[in-house]
Amino acid sequence: CDSFTLYLSRLNTDVELCQSLRRLLADESVMSSLDPETRRVAELFMFDFEISGIHLDEEKRKKAVNLNVRILDLCNEFLTGAHLPNKIDKHVLPEPIRYNFTTEGNYLQVAGLHADCPDDLVREAAYKIFLYPNAEQLSRLEELLASRNSLAQLVGYDTFAHRALQGTMAKNPETVRQFLEKLSDRLSERTQKDFEMMTKMKMKLNPQNSKLMPWDHPYYSGVLRAERYNIDPGLYCPFFSLGACMEGLNSLFSRLLGISLYAEQTQRGEVWSEDVRKLAVVHETEGLLGYIYCDFFQRPDKPHQDCHFTVRGGRLRENGEYQLPVVVLMLSLPHSTRGAPTLLSPGMMENLFHEMGHAMHSMLGRTRYQHVTGTRCPTDFAEVPSILMEYFANDYRVVNQFARHYETGQ
């Protein structure tokens, strides 16, 4: 990964390549003969050169390349470290709550916030231990922020935010700031009401310790939702087996897009884990559109990061054939048990729909060039198809079509 990043960074600071592109962009007769997509790709390549520091002298260009590589390393290290469990001597915690955490010799492993646990003390312990400041993580974060700022200023931007927002719909930090401030103002009154309701609920359930604490918010908001809708959120899970959710997606895509998902057998050595499943995406008239590898289940050393990433982008080959896109959807779902299939919470189901929105964007964005295929578009716009899928995931008319109890089928 490092060598590939280094190679790309060097290409983005290659003076000879940039000069050739600049000559093309300056030639009006050539530019007018190009189709809009080709012109757009040429402009995007020049944009990449400019934000990478092509205008700098050789020594500073090398510094920009090294900063890019270091920033990627620090991002990966920080994200990996953010999901690692914290250990604590088991005797520090009261004995009645120790069973909530994994035992490792004389230590307890705290791997999450236990936000749904009804025991206030368990939530408090998990919150304080799992989120306890880590010196190595803080050091990585400080170096990451400093490196981003150094790179941005080196290539001519005031801040990293100014550089990162170039080429997006937001365009600059001021637009983002105005949006967040407006959103905060509009939500302030609602948020205050929510906190008042949570405080009253905690006072009702735990009058001896009624002050609302940071580790209380997820739990009591869930309690309030359960009371308002007269149903325990945990009761949804049996209706959202992974199989039912995938059938729901297949049905939705068929009705909306004329697309079906078919499971395919993988070849020896094709996948990196036996849990990975391969789906062929087939359109009713255009045929095979591409492939999605579904890496859905938890396993040791797997990043705890739900995401979509591209293995191969779609593009039109010189011989006229279309290179099919190949993408991966990575989630962190629990494995099935002997008595039940993999069951998703409403949040997990919504996230599955969200990530599948990215995958469909990659399948349907059939462009001439890989540089603008699928999700290779402004970062903020890339979320639009996924947010649309979240609306479907929360619409009872859609959910009613596939949500079935895994035991009764009702």
Automatic annotation (TrEMBL):
Cofactor note: Binds 1 zinc ion.
CDD domains noted in UniProt: M3A_MIP
UniProt cross-references to InterPro entries, sorted A to Z: M3A_MIP, MetalloPept_cat_dom_sf, Neurolysin/TOP_dom2, Pept_M3A_M3B, Pept_M3A_M3B_dom
Listed GO CC annotations: mitochondrion
Molecular function (Gene Ontology), one example: metalloendopeptidase activity
Gene Ontology biological process terms in this record: peptide metabolic process; protein processing involved in protein targeting to mitochondrion
Pfam family, one: Peptidase_M3
Localization annotation: Mitochondrion
Peptidase M3A/M3B catalytic domain location: 114-410
Similarity section: Belongs to the peptidase M3 family.
Protein name: Mitochondrial intermediate peptidase
Annotated source species: Cariama cristata
